[in-house]
From TrEMBL:
This is DNA repair protein RecO. HAMAP family: RecO. Gene3D superfamilies: Nucleic acid-binding proteins (2.40.50.140), Recombination protein O, C-terminal domain (1.20.1440.120), Recombination protein O, zinc-binding domain (6.20.220.20). Keywords: DNA damage, DNA recombination, DNA repair. PANTHER family: DNA REPAIR PROTEIN RECO (PTHR33991:SF1). Involved in DNA repair and RecF pathway recombination. Residues 1-79 form the DNA replication/recombination mediator RecO N-terminal domain. It comes from Kribbella pratensis. Belongs to the RecO family. InterPro entries: ARFGAP/RecO, DNA_rep/recomb_RecO_N, NA-bd_OB-fold, RecO, RecO_C.
Length: 250
């Protein structure tokens, strides 16, 4: 079987037989890959712990007929160590992984931008450098933008009339002018629109200035926008708990 090497983030795993596991990976060069990790559920496995969700790994894989096979695994960053014991980080992290899995649809199609975005978000989440809610909201907006669903927070998303505008409509693609807005649209505050734009562009100095009310309103609009364009809510979203300092072990 032909061999290839790639960096990957483990999105999810499932048991296969008595000792094996199938790992769904988001790789840097080859997009989404499903691969068998043989014997990883045995205590003697050489790389079982390296193939857990949230792990960033350097892999050698053998191309298979239906599933590829992991032949080598070296850890790059074990992001799970800083995520799984903090409930707010863990629930945000599971949404990150599910989002990447959902948005990268085709297997073996390059998705380098999504890979880099996810790796960066997991790194920040694992260190506690920023609040989980901010990391997640920014990731959702930016991953949607990479997938072709970039929201407009300035010009009218429907007709292009220069903003700022007051109404937000997920179906139209963001903020809309008075002519284009539907009946009873969401009417976010100017501070919320500014915060959303900052999250989309990665303008952290601006995003960090938002007060709790602005952040809550932004989170609701992002969830509505994501759900509309993906048709179904993420399975992990109802379990989200972004309360500061909440812990699995506490």
């Amino acid at each position: 079987m032909p061999l290839y090497r790639d960096q990957a983030i483990v999105l999810r795993t499932q048991k296969l037989g008595e000792a094996d596991r199938i790992a769904t990976l988001l790789t840097r060069a080859n997009g989404k890959v499903r691969a068998v990790a043989k014997g990883v559920r045995r205590t003697s496995s050489r790389f079982g712990a390296r193939l857990e969700p949230f792990s960033h790994v350097d892999l050698q894989l053998a191309t298979g007929r239906t599933l590829d096979v992991v032949t080598q695994a070296e850890s790059i960053s074990a992001y799970g160590e800083g995520i799984v014991n903090d409930y707010a980080r863990y629930t945000a992290g599971t949404v990150l992984l599910e989002t990447a899995d959902r948005l990268v649809v085709e297997e073996k199609e390059p998705a380098t931008q999504q890979h880099l975005l996810l790796a960066g978000a997991l790194r920040v989440l694992s260190t506690g450098e920023r609040e989980p809610a901010l990391v997640l909201d920014s990731f959702l907006l930016r991953s949607l933008a990479i997938s072709g669903y970039a929201p407009s927070f300035d010009d009218c998303a429907r007709c292009g009339e220069p903003g700022p505008h007051r109404a937000f409509n997920p179906a139209a693609g963001g903020m809309v002018c008075t002519t284009c807005r539907p009946p009873a649209p969401a009417m976010p505050s100017l501070a919320t629109v500014t915060h959303l734009a900052a999250l989309l562009t990665g303008d952290w100095p601006t995003a960090l200035q938002a007060d709790p009310r602005t952040r809550r309103e932004s989170t609701g609009l992002i969830a509505a926008f994501f759900t509309y364009h993906q048709e179904n809510q993420l399975r992990s979203l109802p379990h989200l708990d972004l309360t500061p300092n909440s812990h699995l072990t506490g």
